[in-house]
Amino acid sequence: MQWRDLGPADQEHLHTELRKLATQLSDLIIDSEHPGPPDQRAVGLLTMLRATHLMRAALDGLMSQLAREAGQTGTIGYPQLGDAVGISRQSARTRWPHALPATTRRRGRRPSVTPPVPDIPMTADPAAPGSPRASLRASTPRRSNMRG
Questions:
Q1: Would you tell me which of 89, 104, 105, 106 could form a disulfide with 79, CB atoms 3.0–4.6 Å apart?
Q2: Between 29 and 52, whose confidence is greater?
Q3: DSSP 8-class letter at 17
Q4: Of 61, 58, 63, whose CA–CA distance to 21 is shortest?
């Protein structure tokens, strides 16, 4: 799916609407019984900052919920989730690890074809007689440093 970026006018409109929402939310969270410093502009801006912080946390929660809901449809994978927010498939999986049902998350994984490596006992001295490295060294022909 292709996404279109917002143009400058759309971005300005979004910014204006978010500022209005932050102002409305700041009216709800301000403690009018305990006024802050006398500079009302500073108090208002700090309250709006607090409001946008709360909005951001709420948006993060909403994004997680929407990712889970989209993943539960069974038709969406991590590549599509990542594409929707401009991140990689791996980042989407890290951000929302349980967005897809467990059966979907495991689909496509292949069993390992590499056999397990047996433990080879290591000795303190790799050149000691009887060590696997010593026997390999003994059977490997050595090159001469002399040029001829």
A1: 89
A2: 52
A3: H
A4: 58
Q: Which two tokens stand for residue 129?
A: 């007689």
Quote the DSSP letter at residue 127. Answer: T
Q: Is the model's pTM score more than 0.90?
A: no
pLDDT at 123 over 60: no
Characterise 3 by phi-psi region: left (phi > 0), alpha (psi -120 to 50), beta (else).
Answer: beta
Give me the residue label for tokens 């790799």.
126
66-85 tens-digit pLDDT: 999 999 998 999 999 999 99
Angle between the N-to-C axes of helices 78-85 and 40-72, in degrees from 0 to 180, rounded to the nearest 10: 160
What is the spatial distance between Cα 117 and Cα 105, in angstroms, rounded to a whole number?
28
The Cα angle at residue 31 between residues 27 and 33, in degrees rounded to 5: 125
- Mean pLDDT, rounded, of the chain: 79
